[in-house]
Amino acid sequence: MRWMSGIGLFVAGTILGILIMQPSASPKNMTPGVRLNHVGLYVKNLDESVAFYKKMGFRQVFTFNDAQGHPVVYMQVDHDTFMEFTPATAEHPAGLSHMGIWSDDLKSTVAALRQNGIKVDDVSMGVTKAHITNLVDPDGLRTELLEFPPESLQRKAINAWK
Fold first, then answer.
1. pLDDT digits 0-9 by tens, 133-146
2. What string of DSSP letters covers 59-95?
3. Which residues, including other chains, have CB under 8 Å from residue 74's CB and lie 6 or more apart?
4. Mean local confidence (pLDDT), 46-55
5. DSSP E strand boundaries for the chain
6. How confident is the model over 88-115, as pLDDT tens digits?
7. Per-residue pLDDT for 49 more than 50?
8. Which of 97, 109, 157 is closest to 129 using CA atoms?
9. Strand partners, 83
10. Percentage of residues of the chain with pLDDT beyond 90
């Protein structure tokens, strides 16, 4: 019987600790309505990479050509998370290309970032019909900020998820 009260006290303490620590562990000054949407990778062999990730269960949802004419393949990991593959080149070796952050309200997100002193490009319509802008972090890593209207390829893939 004594061990049961010990377990009960442990469970109650754990729950109380979670409730107390949760608000203090929450990130402060977060930009509301933003979340990671995709990771862009430069790959040595596009077909090989696509085949590999298909074996992992990811779906190829669309392909387009970037401004330089290189094919870009989007693979859906889950409902609203993607991987983006572009062939590696001499100037862009295999590895991380960028990350994509999805914003519910891109204009407000850009305004808030600029107010915080972050240089953000103007918003434009991307090849996939998503609203898009870019920023570069202190280490030179490009981050895309995106908003997905109904006609965007990303929104269509999200809506088609089963």
1. 999 999 999 999 99
2. EEEEEEE-TTS-EEEEEEEETTEEEEEEE--SSS-SE
3. 38, 60, 61, 62, 63, 82, 83, 84, 153, 154, 157
4. 98
5. 34-43, 59-65, 71-78, 81-87, 95-103, 124-125, 131-136, 142-147
6. 999 999 999 999 999 999 999 999 999 9
7. yes
8. 157
9. 39, 75
10. 78
Q: How far apart are CA 143 and CA 98, in angstroms?
A: 6
Separation in Å, CA 50 to CA 56, 92, 101, 108: 10, 18, 22, 35
Residue 59, pLDDT > 60, answer yes
C-alpha 67, offset from chain centre = 21
Two tokens at 156?
């269509």
The string over 103-125, giving b where at least 16 C-beta atoms fall within 10 Å of a residue's C-beta and e elsewhere, is beebeebbebbeeeeeebeebee
pLDDT value at residue 162? 82
**Edge-to-edge strand list for the sheet holding 95-103:** 59-65, 71-78, 81-87, 34-43, 95-103, 142-147, 131-136, 124-125
Which residue segments constitute the domains of the chain, with CATH numbers given?
A: 34-160 (3.10.180.10)
AA letter at 13: G
**Cα(102)–Cα(81) distance, rounded to whole angstroms?**
10
